[in-house]
Design brief:
Elements: E1 4-6, H1 20-26, E2 32-38, H2 42-54, E3 58-62, H3 74-83, E4 89-98, H4 106-123, E5 127-132, H5 135-145, E6 151-154, H6 160-167, E7 172-175, H7 185-193, E8 199-201, H8 223-234, H9 238-253
Parallel strand pairs: 1-2, 2-3, 3-4, 4-5, 5-6, 6-7, 7-8
């Protein structure tokens, strides 16, 4: 069995309401050792934490997505701090900026992003960052924090030059099904050039299912297809890339090393 960790999948999303338990029950048989479920607001964060507490292979992040920044409150920040102490909560996220939809005013997005970065820094927790059509402001904010935070740029789709500006702080990047899309030039360039020591793998389910599953609800195990495509794109040995990305994910989120000891088809363990 070849194993992976889905570093970003919204299993709390209503798109999974009718199939969630079946999906979770299939994770091991599909070669998925663990799934990280990021929160987007108070409701989804609470749900992600509840799912993580009741399912061995799920882990949660808590945070406010830029779409929901207008609903951020002092009370919710206090509650986030409490939730962050839960054993299965591994990061603050997803947080950041989104200027594509502008569902919250940009000044509000900026302020809420900075508050959550400060929260993560005070808790010494990593952050999962969403950035869409906001590269300049995202970089400006992150440069103020620099290497004082551990950051993962999720489903990142900005230029190589923008990534280089942030890479010096030791940040990581997670890529998903978008790299398999025909016209995703920037995502493909990142997939080719980002050092394997900085890469994580994600689905961003229920969205962005990779080819050959495009148009379907994304499943955690579809990440196997993305990884195979990325290895080919990079000219890397697929198994070597898989093992490196797996270890990166353990290290970034502080996941238990026992996840490396998953049984394989021959009765041994994945190392």
């Amino acid at each position: 069995m070849k194993w992976l960790i889905d570093a970003h999948c919204h299993l709390d999303d209503e798109a999974y309401d009718d199939t969630r338990e079946e999906i979770i029950s299939r994770l091991v048989s599909e070669g998925v050792a663990a799934v990280i479920d990021p929160g987007c607001d108070a409701k989804s964060s609470e749900k992600a934490v509840a799912l993580a507490k009741t399912h061995e292979r799920l882990y949660a992040c808590v945070g406010t997505h830029p779409h929901e920044a207008s609903g951020y409150t002092d009370a919710w920040e206090v509650r986030m701090r409490v939730l962050a102490q839960e054993k299965k909560v591994v990061a603050i996220g997803e947080i950041g900026l989104d200027y594509h939809y502008d569902l919250s005013p940009r000044k509000t997005q900026w302020a809420v992003f900075e508050r959550q970065l400060e929260l993560a820094r005070s808790l010494q927790m990593p952050v999962v960052i969403h950035s869409r059509e906001a590269a300049a402001d995202n970089s400006a904010i992150l440069k103020n924090f620099g290497s004082s935070i551990r950051a993962l740029l999720h489903s990142y789709n900005e230029t190589w030059e923008t990534w280089e500006e942030l890479a010096e702080f030791g940040y990581f990047i997670s890529l998903g099904g978008m790299v398999t899309f025909k016209n995703a030039a920037m995502a493909k360039e990142l997939a080719r050039r980002v050092p394997c020591e900085r890469l994580l793998l994600e689905t961003d389910g229920p969205y962005l299912a990779p080819v050959p599953h495009r148009g379907r609800t994304n499943m955690p195990w579809y990440a196997h297809d993305t990884l195979a495509y990325m290895a080919s794109l990079r000219g890397d040995d697929e198994e070597a890339l898989r093992r490196q990305v797996f270890q990166n994910t353990l290290d970034f989120f502080g996941l238990p090393a026992t996840l490396k000891e998953m049984p394989d088809a021959e009765g041994g363990t994945h190392v």
